[in-house]
Specification:
297 residues; alpha+beta; SH3 type barrels; four-stranded antiparallel β-sheet; three-stranded antiparallel β-sheet; 15 strands; 13% helix; rod-shaped; disordered N terminus
């Protein structure tokens, strides 16, 4: 009896515990779903608006802990990858606030406010020289000829010919496509547009308007084509009297005019007018003495 009681208790305990496990498994499913949703919604926001256009170097670049630093060079160029020949992202002047987020060789990957769009954060690579202070040396100042302007680039000052893109006045083989800060004793000033080597676009020829609705003028020398479907209408005022010495070529019948009166030499036989006889019918007809009209042979 003791053995039977123990077995019964074990079975009861097992039956009692099953629902709890099922409830626990059911509760775990929504928890896992909520956790996955939270992970998906916690995807990191992009560091910059142009992040997808900037080259990265996994395994070759060193991550920096968002180090803030101002540009110290008079002017520096920001590129799409860690090289001086990459496509240009922006031109930054001295004193611009930047944040370093990575380094590769002698280049820093930085984020900054887009100079052309305040409130928009962009990123790019700059040479480490951008953070090296430059002491102005008046003896190294470039003096440009009259009519030219001094611009400052990250490689130094340069003389250029200013121009207006809306009225390209550049010399031959040049085009108004340059853009750089004006140099004010080494300090970057306002931007200057200037001539660079290039081929000017040819002006688009103005098409000559044509009147598509105007039909071509008829050729006065060309006589109008006769309407083969329209039989000639005899002149009612001038009846044709066949010449006994010639062959009569008049049609055996003509359409009945709207007036209801047949032309001379014809008799009405609805819905047509028939050639009257005698005196004679054309060679392709014969005279019906009963009607006095020419009929086909």
């Amino acid at each position: 009896m003791r053995t039977i009681g123990l077995s019964t208790a074990v079975i009861a305990l097992a039956l009692t515990g099953c629902p709890e496990k099922q409830h626990a498994a059911a509760d775990a499913a929504p928890s896992a779903t909520a956790s996955a949703s939270a992970t998906a919604s916690a995807a990191p926001a992009p560091l910059a608006a142009n992040e997808g256009d900037i080259k990265r170097y996994p395994g070759a670049e060193t991550k920096l802990d968002k180090v803030p630093q101002k540009i110290e060079a008079y002017v520096t160029t920001v590129r799409s990858d860690a090289s001086s020949g990459a496509s240009l992202v922006a031109v930054l002047k001295k004193g611009t606030d930047t944040t370093k987020i990575a380094q590769k060789d002698t280049f820093y990957l930085i984020t900054f406010t887009d100079p052309g769009s305040p409130g928009r954060t962009v990123m790019g690579w700059v040479d480490q020289k951008a953070y090296t202070a430059v002491t102005w040396d008046a003896g190294r100042h470039v003096v440009c000829p009259a009519g030219q302007a001094t611009i400052i680039l990250d490689v130094g000052e340069q003389c250029v010919v200013p121009c207006d893109p809306n009225n390209d006045n550049c010399p031959a083989n040049q085009v108004c496509n340059g853009d750089a800060p004006r140099s004010n004793k080494g300090q970057a000033g306002d931007n200057v547009e200037f001539c660079v080597v290039g081929v000017k676009k040819s002006p688009t020829p103005t098409p000559t308007p044509t009147d598509a609705a105007a039909p071509p003028a008829p050729d006065a020398a060309a006589p109008p084509m006769p309407d083969a479907a329209a039989p000639p209408t005899p002149d009612a005022a001038a009846p044709v009297t066949p010449d006994a010495g010639t062959t009569d070529t008049r049609p055996l019948k003509v359409p009945l005019p709207a007036s209801g009166a047949c032309p001379g030499g014809y008799k009405k036989k609805a819905p047509d007018c028939r050639l009257a006889c005698p005196p004679a019918c054309p060679p392709n007809g014969k005279c019906n003495d009963g009607t006095g009209m020419c009929e086909p042979k």
